[in-house]
Model the fold of this input.
Amino acid sequence: KAAGSDFISRAKKFVDPDVVLIHGGTNDCIASNGIALGEYDYDSPFGGLDTYTNFRESYIAVIKYIMANWPDAKIIIILGDHVTGEYATSVVEIAAHYDLQLVDFRIDSEKMTKYSGSHPNAAGMEYMAERIYNETLGKI
Done:
């Protein structure tokens, strides 16, 4: 991962969030950038997790970091339509472990068909925002 673009570096920029959307894994899954899956290490303290070379530990670390620094923030996990295989399974498993809401976009990726690289265009982002709200915050 490039310095400053990993999960933790982004989370450190938060300022008292009410809601945090974690939408990660696309680059790790499709870019063939050498990010190993790693282990489901739920027991190590935040500082003991490998946040640069293991996907699962990075994902767990950012959740632990957010929970420790903003315990009242609602964390919502976004599973992007380009996250597949063991990466997708890992996201689902980690969300379930922490009892976090998950919005899975793999089930309707055809609604986000116009991309700039692996990112949805404005219409795709609007669709995602509506689904995220309707499936999570709109139920409060």
